[in-house]
Design goal:
alpha/beta; TIM Barrel; two-stranded antiparallel ribbon
Length: about 400
């Protein structure tokens, strides 16, 4: 055997070389960082099925397992220390339900009409961004699931990953549209007219989230890793001087009540303002011709160390005195949570994170099941309190211990 042949026979084979190279990359710091997963592997992991979901909290771990950590974090987290996220949930422990003379749940009818929209239950799906990052069906799946659950109205996010015309055509249930104030008046007009032309029966102007910076990393600034639909307003470039240096975007904190008056002239359907947390602002909404207010802190994403929506709801209801509907959101997870808000004067409740969990866990069928679970829980709670209709639900069925 010659020297060359001997070296060839003793050298590393191509297969071993490739395997070694792959092992090097698999163990590199870059690879390990890319694959960081807070969920340790187990010998066996069983994913529960849709029919095993019994309350809203059951959907979250399935959602967590299905989506990238980036997407989960965008949905889960809030502003700063997340005090307000925690306070939203803690507030429900400050309101006790008073036992009543129980009635048959079959006798409970909680149907109502809200700004021309018929609701079988006083529940709507809140606007939330780029839902295609949760499930391939995105906003279309959310709308179909909501419609299948007794025609529950859905509010389409301004930051949608699917055009409003396509979402509207996907299902026959009621569809409202969210709107973020736009400095470019032409862009704002086009967005508002597009929503109305697509059949949206109400417009919700959100004024809270633009007031803060809740994203924890540069990755989260991409809205959980999902694509937003081009043309619905654009984010300003990141600057390193001026207000942006202190994380105050130039697209925020510029709008005025006069701007809302401009929007009012464009919107021919009911107009609501979302992000109201004081009685004074609710009264200003009335002065400026708003048709409804939404008591919201954006699920704890708009301001750290802010109040929970449940604790400020009564003062806003008292100020409005029934002249316009008062809707609320932020932290609602159970039928009893919804009943407490109704008892304190809310006309309806928006659900935000929970439907995102359901969409990411099971798609449109998950959204339908989640809403049906909460509808059933609300009916059962109303029956236990002895309240057969929405009009019969009042403050006498709760006691409050707000700080």
């Amino acid at each position: 055997m010659g020297r060359v042949e001997a070296e060839w026979r003793q050298s590393v084979s191509r297969r071993k070389a490739i395997a070694g190279l792959a092992g090097m990359f698999a163990g590199s710091r870059a690879r390990l960082a890319a694959q960081t997963d807070p969920r340790p592997f187990k010998e066996h992991r069983r994913m529960p099925g849709l029919d095993e979901m019994t309350d809203s909290f059951d959907f979250e771990p399935v959602f967590f397992a299905n989506v990238p950590l980036l997407t989960y974090d965008y949905t889960a987290h809030g502003d700063g220390s997340e005090f307000t996220v925690r306070r939203n949930r803690e507030a429900f422990s400050w309101v006790d339900l008073v036992p009543g003379k129980a009635i048959d749940p079959k006798s409970v009818d909680l149907s109502t009409e809200l700004l021309g929209t018929r609701l079988r239950y006083p529940i709507l799906v809140a606007p939330s961004a780029v839902q295609v990052s949760l499930h391939p069906d995105g906003e279309i799946g959310m709308h179909r699931g909501a419609t299948a659950a007794s025609n529950t109205p859905m509010i389409l996010s301004h930051v949608t990953s699917t055009g409003v015309d396509k979402v509207a055509a996907a299902a026959k249930g009621p569809l409202w549209s969210q709107f973020y104030p736009q400095q470019d008046r032409a862009v704002g007009r086009r967005i508002l007219e597009e929503a109305q032309n697509a059949g949206c029966t109400a417009v919700v102007v959100t004024v809270d989230q633009q007031a803060s910076y809740y994203e924890r990393t540069e990755h989260l600034r991409n809205l959980g890793g999902g694509p937003r639909r081009a043309g619905r307003g654009s984010a300003a470039p990141q600057e390193t001087s001026g207000p942006e240096k202190y994380r105050v975007s130039p697209v925020r904190l510029w709008y005025t009540w006069e701007y809302l008056d401009e929007v009012r002239k464009i919107v021919k359907v009911p107009l609501l303002v979302k992000g109201i947390l004081t009685a004074d602002d609710a009264l200003l909404c009335l002065e400026h011709g708003v048709d409804g207010v939404i008591v919201s802190n954006h699920g704890g994403r708009s301001m750290d160390y802010g109040p929970s929506t449940l604790e400020v709801l009564p003062e806003i209801v008292a100020a409005v005195r029934g002249r316009i509907p008062v809707i609320t959101d932020s932290g609602y997870r159970r039928g009893t949570d919804i009943l407490k808000a109704l008892a304190l004067g809310a006309n309806a409740v928006l659900l935000g994170r929970a439907p995102r969990w359901a969409l990411g866990a099971f798609g449109a069928p998950g959204v339908q099941r989640l809403l049906e679970i909460l509808q059933r829980e609300l009916v059962d709670a109303a029956a236990a309190a002895g309240r057969p209709t929405l009009a019969s639900i009042d403050r006498s069925i709760v006691t409050t211990r707000f700080p």
